[in-house]
Recover the amino acids of this structure.
């Protein structure tokens, strides 16, 4: 009730203020009129000057008076919007026809929502900065200054260390043989032979796995000039499918702080393909679905599923 | 093999499964090692001498399985499909191929496997009292540049196709059995990674049976994928699904080779031959019994 009353008082003040502004404007325009008209209609130059100055002084006085009046009124009007957290948009709450234009409630909701969003985005960015998921240095463009710092831990490891990690993994799995070569500079390429089931070409950059290609045990993995063929895919549909899944696994096993663990997890997962043709699907119990054996291996349990049988 | 030549073969490779040449051997070394009498050695010098003008090259590549064989193929099962009741061979084949096409298999040309039987000539049997062995010389359209020579339960030789010419040269020691040629011809079907070949087995002019060959290309160890293969066979052979071929059991986790397929074909052909013999014997018996019946009608 008090609110409404004060608004009423203010409204009166507003009306007076508006008329004061009008008065101010007309007195100001009179000043300029007088300046525009200049000196005239007097016989002597002295008389003309005197009349003009007096007229000009009158006009300025009235401007001054009107301005003072406006200042006085503006104090009366006060600043009603200042109390409101939404500032001027808070005035929308004064709209009496809420049902037709529910602008104010919508505005409040949008405001809350954007507040929350900002809060959560802040939290997320804090967490993401701790655990950088970026696989390549080129993408770390956000803070170019920090890039050289991030590299030594993950991307620039001595080849000797990579060799050690790989040979340790090689010894861990007896049915898996890993042949490491470095045909192009420091990046290692692995030829993994898994039992008599399949061969995998793994292209590494430091200890990051960049690319894998799965081929059959009896397929040729070398190009004509005796290099590892890292581009052509397998002739068999089953190994093309396994290649796709292996690429998925590369993206799944990510732990930038401990790249050797990533390689080991990937190899452990890969090893479950030793039973590619022997394990029936854990869901439908069959070997074949559309002519393909269960090509998917669960990332945690390593159980065999058909591509369409997994969750 | 003593006579291993150093030069690699320059024969161009075939369409699929071209058998690569790991090393080159004289074909006769195989024969000598498989128990030929010493008198053969005289012939040895004749065959390899440049006077033999029928070969474009005097080199002859040959490998003895399984130790020195580098090539592999997908695990394959060859089986016989019985002719459906009241149907001809041709109709049963059509029934089978229609079933395959319904499954989604795509036609991919034709195939042919043939087999000729040789027996060792009496003159070459040594004094040790060796029994005459049967040797089978086979060809497979899947390996157009190769020729397979097999002994029953014995070694399998994979050689160039001009091995046939050598067999002509060796006719004093191996004689071709009369009218022994048996072959199977039919259509190849591809379904995913499976290769299915349904063929009509013919001896001379008449059809004698149906052969079904299923190859699973990605897998090279027979024991690994037998269950998987069985499931596929059941999907279109139904109750006629065969048991595991004998060659699967022989070599536990060895890599499957084209020669294993040829051994299966040899066994299939022998089985069909025996079935025919029993059939003929049965007919002979019928004829003689009907004759005796006729005789009995007459008073003696």
């Amino acid at each position: 009730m008090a609110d409404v009353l004060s608004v009423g008082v203010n409204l009166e003040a507003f009306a007076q203020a508006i008329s004061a502004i009008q008065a101010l404007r007309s007195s100001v325009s009179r000043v300029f009129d007088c300046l525009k008209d200049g000196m005239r209609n007097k016989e002597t130059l002295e008389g003309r000057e005197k009349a003009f100055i007096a007229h000009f002084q009158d006009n300025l006085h009235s401007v001054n008076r009107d301005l003072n009046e406006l200042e006085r009124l503006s104090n009366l009007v006060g600043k009603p919007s200042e109390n409101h957290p939404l500032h001027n948009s808070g005035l929308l709450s004064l709209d009496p026809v809420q049902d037709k234009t529910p602008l104010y409630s919508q505005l409040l909701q949008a405001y809350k929502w954007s507040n929350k969003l900002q809060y959560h985005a802040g939290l997320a960015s804090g967490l993401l900065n701790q655990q950088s998921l970026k696989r390549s240095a080129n993408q770390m463009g956000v803070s170019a200054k920090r890039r050289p710092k991030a590299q030594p831990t993950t991307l620039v490891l001595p080849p000797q260390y990579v060799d050690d990690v790989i040979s340790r993994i090689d010894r861990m799995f007896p049915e898996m043989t890993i042949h490491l070569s470095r045909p192009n500079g420091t990046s290692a390429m692995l030829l993994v032979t898994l039992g008599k089931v399949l061969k995998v070409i793994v292209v590494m950059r430091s200890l990051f796995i960049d690319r894998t290609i799965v081929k059959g045990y009896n397929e040729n993995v070398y190009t004509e000039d005796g290099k590892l063929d890292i581009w052509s895919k397998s002739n068999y549909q089953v190994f093309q499918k396994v290649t796709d899944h292996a690429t998925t696994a590369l993206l799944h096993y990510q732990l930038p702080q401990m790249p050797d663990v990533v390689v080991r997890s990937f190899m452990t997962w890969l090893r479950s393909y030793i039973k590619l043709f022997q394990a029936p699907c854990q869901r439908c119990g069959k070997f074949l679905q559309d002519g393909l054996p269960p090509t998917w291996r669960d990332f945690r349990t390593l159980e065999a599923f058909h591509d369409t049988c997994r969750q | 093999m003593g006579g291993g030549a150093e030069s690699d073969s320059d024969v161009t490779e075939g369409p699929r499964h071209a058998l690569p040449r790991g090393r080159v051997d004289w074909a006769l070394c195989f024969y000598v090692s498989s128990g030929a009498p010493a008198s053969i050695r005289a012939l040895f010098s004749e065959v390899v001498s440049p006077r033999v003008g029928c070969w474009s090259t005097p080199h002859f590549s040959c490998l003895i399985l399984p130790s020195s064989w580098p090539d592999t193929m997908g695990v394959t099962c060859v089986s016989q499909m019985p002719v459906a009741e009241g149907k001809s061979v041709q109709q049963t084949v059509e029934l089978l191929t229609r079933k395959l096409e319904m499954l989604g298999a795509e036609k991919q040309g034709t195939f042919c496997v043939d087999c000729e039987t040789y027996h060792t000539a009496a003159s070459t049997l040594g004094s040790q009292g060796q029994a005459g062995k049967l040797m089978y010389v086979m060809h497979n359209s899947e390996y157009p540049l190769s020729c397979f020579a097999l002994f029953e339960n014995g070694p399998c030789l994979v050689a160039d196709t001009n091995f046939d010419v050598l067999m002509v040269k060796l006719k004093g020691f191996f004689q071709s059995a009369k009218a022994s040629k048996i072959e199977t011809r039919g259509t190849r079907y591809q379904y995913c990674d499976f290769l299915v070949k349904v063929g009509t087995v013919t001896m001379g002019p008449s059809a004698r049976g149906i052969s079904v060959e299923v190859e699973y290309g990605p897998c090279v160890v027979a024991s690994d994928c037998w269950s998987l293969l069985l499931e596929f066979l059941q999907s279109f052979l139904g109750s006629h699904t065969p048991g595991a071929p004998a060659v699967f059991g022989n070599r536990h986790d060895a890599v499957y080779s084209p020669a294993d397929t040829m051994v299966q074909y040899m066994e299939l052909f022998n089985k069909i031959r025996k079935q025919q013999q029993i059939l003929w014997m049965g007919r002979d018996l019928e004829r003689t019994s009907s004759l005796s019946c006729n005789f009995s009608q007459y008073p003696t």
Confidence is low (pLDDT under 50) at residues 1-5, 137-152 of chain A. The interface with chain B takes residues 196-197, 216-218, 235-239, 277-278, 280, 286-288, 290-293 of chain A (CB under 8 Å). The first strand of chain A starts at residue 176 and ends at 181. The helical segments of chain A are 2-37, 45-77, 103-130, 147-154, 159-172, 237-252, 259-271.
